Queue: 3 jobs
Job 1
Amino acid sequence: MPDNNFAERSEEQVSGAKVIAQALKTQDVEYIFGIVGIPVTEIAIAAQQLGIKYIGMRNEQAACYAASAIGYLTGRPGVCLVVSGPGLIHALGGMANANMNCWYMERCMSPPISMAETSAVCTAASVIRNAKQPLLIIGKGAAYAHAEESIKKLVEQYKLPFLPTPMGKGVVPDNHPCCVGAARSRALQFADVIVLFGARLNWILHFGLPPRYQPDVKFIQVDICAEELGNNVKPAVTLLGNINAVTKQLLEELDKTPWQYPPESKWWKTLREKMKSNEAASKELASKKSLPMNYYTVFYHVQEQLPRDCFVVSEGANTMDIGRTVLQNYRPRHRLDAGTFGTMGVGLGFAIAAAMVAKDRSPGQRVICVEGDSAFGFSGMEVETICRYNLPIILLIVNNNGIYQGFDTDTWKEMLKFRGATAVVPPMCLLPNSHYEQVMTAFGGKGYFVQTPEELQKSLRQSLADTTKPSLINIMIEPQATRKAQDFHWLTRSNM
Amino acid sequence: MPDNNFAERSEEQVSGAKVIAQALKTQDVEYIFGIVGIPVTEIAIAAQQLGIKYIGMRNEQAACYAASAIGYLTGRPGVCLVVSGPGLIHALGGMANANMNCWYMERCMSPPISMAETSAVCTAASVIRNAKQPLLIIGKGAAYAHAEESIKKLVEQYKLPFLPTPMGKGVVPDNHPCCVGAARSRALQFADVIVLFGARLNWILHFGLPPRYQPDVKFIQVDICAEELGNNVKPAVTLLGNINAVTKQLLEELDKTPWQYPPESKWWKTLREKMKSNEAASKELASKKSLPMNYYTVFYHVQEQLPRDCFVVSEGANTMDIGRTVLQNYRPRHRLDAGTFGTMGVGLGFAIAAAMVAKDRSPGQRVICVEGDSAFGFSGMEVETICRYNLPIILLIVNNNGIYQGFDTDTWKEMLKFRGATAVVPPMCLLPNSHYEQVMTAFGGKGYFVQTPEELQKSLRQSLADTTKPSLINIMIEPQATRKAQDFHWLTRSNM
Amino acid sequence: MPDNNFAERSEEQVSGAKVIAQALKTQDVEYIFGIVGIPVTEIAIAAQQLGIKYIGMRNEQAACYAASAIGYLTGRPGVCLVVSGPGLIHALGGMANANMNCWYMERCMSPPISMAETSAVCTAASVIRNAKQPLLIIGKGAAYAHAEESIKKLVEQYKLPFLPTPMGKGVVPDNHPCCVGAARSRALQFADVIVLFGARLNWILHFGLPPRYQPDVKFIQVDICAEELGNNVKPAVTLLGNINAVTKQLLEELDKTPWQYPPESKWWKTLREKMKSNEAASKELASKKSLPMNYYTVFYHVQEQLPRDCFVVSEGANTMDIGRTVLQNYRPRHRLDAGTFGTMGVGLGFAIAAAMVAKDRSPGQRVICVEGDSAFGFSGMEVETICRYNLPIILLIVNNNGIYQGFDTDTWKEMLKFRGATAVVPPMCLLPNSHYEQVMTAFGGKGYFVQTPEELQKSLRQSLADTTKPSLINIMIEPQATRKAQDFHWLTRSNM
Amino acid sequence: MPDNNFAERSEEQVSGAKVIAQALKTQDVEYIFGIVGIPVTEIAIAAQQLGIKYIGMRNEQAACYAASAIGYLTGRPGVCLVVSGPGLIHALGGMANANMNCWYMERCMSPPISMAETSAVCTAASVIRNAKQPLLIIGKGAAYAHAEESIKKLVEQYKLPFLPTPMGKGVVPDNHPCCVGAARSRALQFADVIVLFGARLNWILHFGLPPRYQPDVKFIQVDICAEELGNNVKPAVTLLGNINAVTKQLLEELDKTPWQYPPESKWWKTLREKMKSNEAASKELASKKSLPMNYYTVFYHVQEQLPRDCFVVSEGANTMDIGRTVLQNYRPRHRLDAGTFGTMGVGLGFAIAAAMVAKDRSPGQRVICVEGDSAFGFSGMEVETICRYNLPIILLIVNNNGIYQGFDTDTWKEMLKFRGATAVVPPMCLLPNSHYEQVMTAFGGKGYFVQTPEELQKSLRQSLADTTKPSLINIMIEPQATRKAQDFHWLTRSNM
């Protein structure tokens, strides 16, 4: 740190900082996340004086992830403020490219709206009408375009089955009767027409290829980004334009002739049966009484108490994947997870950003941040940030003592008897029975260490009831939980 | 994380991993630091089977910093193992460039040794003999070249005053009678001949320019790197070559004619007087009884109990700068700090690397890691790593509730009464009275919260005595300590 | 060149080449420009066997520029084929990024068509109707979108004055009565509503800022690229979509209510008067009998004989700028110039690409390539390529013995008497009286060295009449022509 | 070109230019190569006023290649001055990286000299003494280090056979009795000890691997660059240091005990016999009377008249490779060729740089630039630069109508009868019988078109006699010359 003398800051720095802060204000910036250091401190102070909120973070990575979430949540630019040099390099984890001390995570102005070509809309409507086994897939792009009204109307008016992608969850509520999330694999595999609303055929959607799809499935792709159209699979129809505007065009076109996809079709029956059997299987697993708990038991209890209006943030491996199938979203843009790239370390930054938005826009609203124990390690020190700003966050750590899986304390101790830990400890193991909840109590928040369904229920109830401080619930599960899950192969991600 | 199914790892991955692990073994790799994930897990396991030690970290940044320290400490390559994609980007904080899943932090083979040109050595010896006010500056390069024997001989045989740079500390012990560290500014300012042993004229040495130096000071630069010679200042003599080999050449040349720099010269007297007065001033400050403690009180008590053979790792602003002047090093390559770039977040990674080396090479040896409270936040979750491997580390957090400075609890509470924290909390403030020691107890280590000299002494004594587990001492100091320090301008870094 | 043994090419190279060639064919590639070398030769041969045309160039820069023009001219991808290593680096002049031996200069498939939001079209139509002093600016984007029909209809139906940008010339013919190119500065300065069709407010359009524009001018921006909307100036209305489709939407909207911009308005009168006076001034200058000729004399004679259907390619400083105001385009996508970045060296590559297209699609059609003498030097050796393939190109070199300006032979000789050329020759001077036409005769083409209007007329006539070989006319002008031009400040680019 | 108004240059530009020019002067810059454009023109003018020579080039590529040669030739920095933007990208062909308008091609100051470790020198001397079949390889690094005196002494005093690499030619004259270039393959294949003086084991030296070398050959590597030591092959001894200084150390060590490698050893006999038979075969080919000429006939005639002190610059495929074996160098640093990467387009830039140096330092000295016809095309327009500055360059174009090989005129015409040239012309063909010499006469130089040995002899004699202007000799050879050469496989590069 070449210069740390806070008192010696120059006039030039101060006035330069004011100019930058004013520019940020003009761009409608509401939140800055950062780590101060000369000369960035001045900018933060100047921004506060103009009414911009400054959230001091503990590592540049988390600051960047927080800033990147703001644009998605509010449509306004999020700013990450770090010192150049090492700080900037740290921040690269959250940024693809940057060459200044501060930058914007999203466009500043809402872009003009474009619509699809009329004739293409016409073709798309016709393809949908003639579908035998139609399916809508609702992606993050639909959430980003605020297309919830129009897509919900489409679903309900024509009785079309739909699936959300991870961040498309909540555009239409997960508990909607047309949601076929619990029969995901079946729906993908047998659909003959699939309409993608801002969803991309990446690995999460198995690239749109057989055997996960019919070889002759017709894709209708609705997207704002011309470059994304036709990647991996050549769509039957492409509708380039603002997703909300295009969905309205589709509705208008379909409205011209009365029509509805028959709710008692064989396709609907197949899907409903599959959903029923999958849900029964999950429920059975969730109701197991054996200890330590398994993932399903944990998530069913969480789901029972989950407030309808909360933000859900999540990262981890099984924690994120299984949690996503059980925890329901009822509102658009209320789920943030590690997403397409599976980037670890995003959770607490995202949760902090969501909590700032919740606090300012809907007092009383909560952020539930569901972390694997390994995932929590990437940015756990941000708990101090959460306590410092007293943010309405409930952290759940689903703790299996490792990455993918770990050992219980007895096995661990036995293992260490032979030789040193660095020689014999499998690389995916973490310390068993870590008391992560103390990382919360260290900073004045509330911490819980829970091992049974009853303790989990109680701690959740207390956390939700106490709106005066953040809390962390450290939930011990079976360290080898993954293995068991694999016995039920229909439970793994690709078969739901 | 596109694929997290540990059980489904392919034959190809396993055998590919073995090849890589064998290659690392052939390159003499002893330690790998990393975060596993498919397909990197296989490499870690294969490496363990070949006797390479694997240390699982919590964030790629810390893993990289740890790996980068290994080369300096052992002369063998340190390896950082991360998943490509987001993990690799996280790891960039510790690497200037990288394009593979794993790489080496240092050359694999010891390079051939080069020597300086004979005539240049001759000239340098003559310049030294004719110096009125000579000074040696011992840098990190001298430590890296294992030049301790030859440089110590040079210092003692010719009675030359010397100064170490931060990571040059310990090449000759800090308590050596020829060490003039306590009169640093004076020595730099009035020397007429300065010999740089692997030290560079960067900002830490004020670029070698007036008014911190005589305008006509003659620099003799001893360095292995041709590109570094003559940066900023044109040296009078440059000796390009291996620093140990060149120092031996210098000794041989000086030995040809009996000579010694007079220990009772005016220059030595001036320096001794200045050292005496500076030390007295520091001691007075250190002996202050007022609470909360100041930096000097803290460091004097730490120094009193500091084991002679320990590693000292440090990062922070004032914590690192003031600590460096008080805490003494007696061995080469036993101090690691945030160094030239002041990179925050290196401390725990460095400490873990040093602890691995200590544990394996000198059982009983300790690592003292001195962190500012803000600095600790960058990688504090690595405390779990420390506990998991039960590493011989004592963490000292010098806690002033902020970056550079913070507030006490009362001021903090008063401040929050007005509006929300994000609006009024100065950007450099952290939560007051954070119980960082609980981050240690959460994982089974020993934690201390200390507010008085007596508590500090006692906790240090206990930590040093208990060799069964790591500990963390959270030392509360005056939150506005910086300000006070500035009243005594002779205490700031540049005047010691 | 690590391996130049043509006979030793491996089976693998041959079959790999066939795969690549087939892929290019599948992508509808019609032309490849390149420089061969192992292993690229095989690809070129395999491509020829599949009916793709291969044009061997003399420098990778020109090859890339040629390939980049093909997409614009034909809507199909142009390919540049170079050896990796040094060849690839040479080629970077024509490419922003590339990491393979071959790549495409344009998207392969025509993208889906998007339209503007209906309400925005409505607003735009209303703004146009209410304009007092409207102006259309037709840019390269309009040409690229093949919007000539719809824009011409808009101009003619509503009697709106329009200006083309350099590469927008010809979308509506330059000699159209509504074209106000000859009153460019006036039109920009006083318009109250400006509709931009695929034109961007960059330096060529003075960034859309006062004093070149009214401070309260309303811009309506029609563009396919959301990122370009609102740069520099905040538009009153933005119409995001395919430019042709959006223009049709505009026409449809305006058609709803009969309306026309009054052809006898004060605005039209002002513009017509300014055009008249500017044209008179240019004509006077063009008719000057003094020798050497000036730019205007040269271009007026060229314009007199310019075939209506020819391609015009141009690069240079004054040569390009003044030539653009005099030489008329009557067809869309028939002008290619150094454009926004003023890149020197693009001319011959562009001309070769245009000539290939002309030869294949409209036999008899000619390419007129107007080069400054300095500009010609960047890729003059491509004349051999032109002769080798016997391309229908007439090269005009407007030769003032320098960059911006030069010296006549006498001054040059006088100057050299003093000291060596490298000491006294001004950096912008080239050799006076260079016989560039011999670079054409060296390869069997026809060359002319002309110094008078009569010689220019005659050589043009002969070149146009002789369809059996390419020709180059080296036109000597006043070396200090720029200076004279500056006396007539209304002649400079920004005041026309 | 955003602004080309030369007259409007601002005061700021002028004074900024002066500062830059003065900085270049201070750095001892003697030559600047560039292409002007605002704001670079000002810098060029300011530099000329300070006595720096400015050479205006026609393409940035050539400018960069010229600048890069200056450091090698003079030991002082060469500067390339181009406009940022497109010009800078063009210039990348000559630069690995650059981010400013101007930069230096070499270090500014001569670096300090380092020596090898005494014990390593001792070992190396012992290995050399015990060699049965020793060989020295003299590389570009030896030339760069000005090690000609010391290496020649080593060769002569100990009677050691040596081979030069392409740019190591002339460090010891090619006609020295110890030079075994004519038995290159044999020497490499059977040597038991090889000392590399600044030569690297890259593809030119077959990576130092069997079967081109004995599996147990011992390499002694003398190099200034630690990173280069031990690449590809692990050397028996490495001597790190300045090559001249280290060679002197070696001489000193070997001098301690009288010794000489026996000139009548079996190794010397083998090498001499092989050289004799290879030379006889080459001579026979060279003496062939059939027309068109072959490569050997051409080069033997050139060699006969080659001035002892000339610079030889060369690029091309067979032209460079075969020419290198026939054309002899007698002085160090007097050969420049396309080198390790085989970069095409470097020839004229290198020749211009060498000619500037020749003109200024040894008036009367000539530069012979030997180009393949394809190679000439990359930067042929620089002939105007050569004429403008009247540089003492003789360009030889060895013209086989193509890249690697081409067709004669009759075959060419026959071929075109079928379909268009782009469909049937093989990609490696260029126009037959191109009169490249007219590219020289176009600018006032002397041009020759030669088809017989007699014409070649005569044109060479005239070119060398006429010191008033540059000349270009366009030498027609058998278009399929490569094929014939392959009948004599002992003539190819790897068997000489």
Job 2
Amino acid sequence: MAEAGREVAARVVLQQCLYAKLQVKPPDRDSEAEWVEIKRGMVVYVCFFKGAENAIIPKMVTSLLNVKLSETDTGKYVSIKDLPGDVLVVPQATLGGKTKGRCMQYHSNAGKEQGMELYAQFIVQCQQELGAHPTWTEAGAVLHHGTYGNRQVLQLNTNGPYTHLLEF
Amino acid sequence: MAEAGREVAARVVLQQCLYAKLQVKPPDRDSEAEWVEIKRGMVVYVCFFKGAENAIIPKMVTSLLNVKLSETDTGKYVSIKDLPGDVLVVPQATLGGKTKGRCMQYHSNAGKEQGMELYAQFIVQCQQELGAHPTWTEAGAVLHHGTYGNRQVLQLNTNGPYTHLLEF
């Protein structure tokens, strides 16, 4: 069996992609929906729990951007920074859900304001870490992210999502 | 923070979709790749750990197929059985990974033979539970699944993946 868990401040699911497209603004009366797109890279679904502090973020960012989960053309696994590949961060509060009977409850999730602040910090620090890595910046790779609190309308095209769970 | 964990026999990630397409046989010299497709429904990524027993499967199947995570046209959440929606099961051993430094290790995963047997049983019991639910069968909904051990080349189109983690 897997090792027993512990208090968790943040939960992240990673999927590798060849292409992904995410709605960042829904359509309204006056304007069409807005989308962001990434090419080959990694989708980072992130959820913060109650009690999570800003201090957790540098550790998350370092871990997620340096873990070797991205496959090169020769089948070697390297970090997303070294691939170098695009990054799409998707706020995904549903990852904090726990079943109660047939329903899902989200009582452990960070509150809206706290979650929004942690998410904003997470994006800033991801951008800083990627921006400081010449291999990544010189390749013209991009970081895009979804809008906290919105429905995350997503399309994904993979050569194997290679789904991983990381908790912090 | 989220509640501390415990021994885990299986880990499942669920995503809702409008459409999904999965390769079930890679191309070879003599034939093209084979794919399965689902329409509106749920993608079930599943990973078994060492020590998991067949006895866990009925509980998993009941929980996954009855939890209310699928959105109707009127915005109500119902089970995939009641939606009724298609189901795509994707074996995803990577979900058992744990970071060690910058690398990912899979020491807790079920061995290949045991994993394959559990996966096969899981599919059979999902099909039985869905097949016994007239709302699901009469709508012509389908269950498809990936090939254990293969690369899971996947395309996904969502109206929000609404990603959930369930552990058993």
Job 3
Amino acid sequence: MLKISVITTKTNELTEVTSNIQKLIDEQKINNGICVVFCPHTTAGIIVNEAYDADVKDDIIFSMEKISPSYPDFKHLEGNSSAHVKASLIGNSSNLIVENGKIQLGRWQGIYFAEFDGPRKRELWVKILEII
Amino acid sequence: MLKISVITTKTNELTEVTSNIQKLIDEQKINNGICVVFCPHTTAGIIVNEAYDADVKDDIIFSMEKISPSYPDFKHLEGNSSAHVKASLIGNSSNLIVENGKIQLGRWQGIYFAEFDGPRKRELWVKILEII
Amino acid sequence: MLKISVITTKTNELTEVTSNIQKLIDEQKINNGICVVFCPHTTAGIIVNEAYDADVKDDIIFSMEKISPSYPDFKHLEGNSSAHVKASLIGNSSNLIVENGKIQLGRWQGIYFAEFDGPRKRELWVKILEII
């Protein structure tokens, strides 16, 4: 598998990685296939969503905090259970279709590393299944 | 990749696409493999859930509105951030197992296009990895 | 495809299945590939998250109940719509990367069968795409 390095700078942050993944596909000269993206962290995930208006990222982060706040009843002593829940909701793997050497995305879509417990040094793992 | 056209008629709507995807597998004469379903939209997603009692669809839509309502604090001017959040939670890709020419689903499962900002003309993208 | 049997003992429960899936990969002598895990149930799903501190599991279950409680307005007469919603949020399929005969996971990650309407006798379906 291939790895992408992501440096996050805030507690909650969506970092676009579309061009990082496309670069791997270019380097591997993959024309046709499936690209599996896997987040090896337990307080972060992968979102494929709007890449045009950056305000959407802020609204997603705002809502995720409403959906999964930190509860006084939490047992996990590290204090970041809210981030584990957000990561479980968002999911840690995604499938991308590759054709003609390009990740196939809808007009407004981008691929995001979704940080919920930053800032941290993170990784995304990418495995490409080529169809010949 | 192959494409399925979906016409949605409400703001929030689960449209079953199980037979549409099975038809593609039939046409391609795929016996064994993995079928990746990818939603190219940013305010819609894919749900694999109950296909027997239609009331479950209504209850899912009802809950999604409670989970991700529209907040006055949202910044995205298009006014549909709630739908972007719902799509991020539900996810925009899914894996289906194909064996003996059939999508393998549990007894009560169906595959749904989950619209959160309709009515619209939508697409689902399908990429089949055949195992020979 | 291969099947894993899971017996759940509570209404909401995260059962780790990492070693069960690794065992299948060992038995099939898969060195390199992608492993698709598919949950054939409509009130359960798959979570890849913390496997070190068991308190995280409890906090995830606690939060899921806050996120998707049972509403008096629900129409589905079986009374478990809350579980259908939780399953839809968590998702019913996941991708795992296999290299050198081992599932590649982050340091703290484990794979969980997420039960939301137990106790029940459940299954996970596993399909392995080998890369040669």
